[in-house]
Amino acid sequence: MQITLSSQQSRILESLSQQGKYASIEDAIDTALVLLADDIIQQNPNVTPEYITWVEQTRLKIDVGLKAAEQGDVLAAEEVLAQLRHKVNAAKAASA
Questions:
Q1: Rounded to whole angstroms, what are the CA distances from 68 to 1, 42, 63, 64, 84?
Q2: Rounded to an integer, what distance in angstroms lies between the CA atom of residue 11 and that of residue 29?
């Protein structure tokens, strides 16, 4: 994944790194992401980092599906339901 930072964001990260508060810009970003996740969790204790990751992954999958649908790459409803039934049955068998 590539992220483009604004000039202000770049200056802040470079300043933190140069001041020695963080070993690298990557460390500063890692810390910022952990603090963001902590803030989200404090606002809603039922939200975990794993849940946040799952939500983001699901959003990305939805975007991929929407783009495919826009291009006409769709499956018949019967096929989708059969795939879902298979997954449910496999999950049931695995948990038994």
A1: 21, 37, 9, 6, 19
A2: 13
Cα separation, 51 vs 79, whole angstroms: 28
Chain position carrying tokens 């769709």:
74
Q: Which two tokens stand for residue 67?
A: 């783009």
Give domain limits for the chain: 1-47, 48-96
Q: How far apart are CA 93 and CA 70, in angstroms?
A: 36
Task: Give the integer Cα–Cα distance in Å for 41 and 48.
Answer: 6
For residue 25, what are its two tokens? 């810009």
The tens digit of pLDDT for each residue in 23-53 reads 888 888 888 888 887 787 778 877 777 888 8
Taking CA 28 as the corner, what is the angle to CA 13 and CA 54, rounded to the nearest 5 degrees? 120
Determine contact, residues 20/35, Cβ cutoff 8 Å: no
* pTM, 2 dp: 0.43
